[in-house]
Write a structure and sequence with these properties.
Blueprint lengths: L7 H6 E3 L5 E4 L12 H6 L3 E3 L5 H7 L6
Antiparallel strand pairs: 1-2, 2-3
């Protein structure tokens, strides 16, 4: 039986919080910022949680995260 492996790209992008939710960075704030409004860029700051409908995919990508 082959070993289970963590998707290393997912391990670099996501962190599991103590409550079992997964934290991710906000998208759409890397480039082409001149056409985006200041309000839009301000709301893209910080981190957000992964939606509950995607938690099954997260459990597959991070098998040792305890999800």
């Amino acid at each position: 039986m082959p070993k289970m492996k963590t998707k290393k790209s997912a391990a670099k992008r996501f962190r599991v919080r103590p409550g079992g939710t997964v934290k991710r960075g906000q998208a759409f704030k890397r480039h082409i910022l001149t056409k985006k409004s200041t309000k839009n860029k301000r709301h893209l700051r910080g981190s957000v949680g992964v939606h509950e409908t995607n938690m099954g995919h997260m459990a597959q990508m991070l098998p040792f995260a305890g999800l």
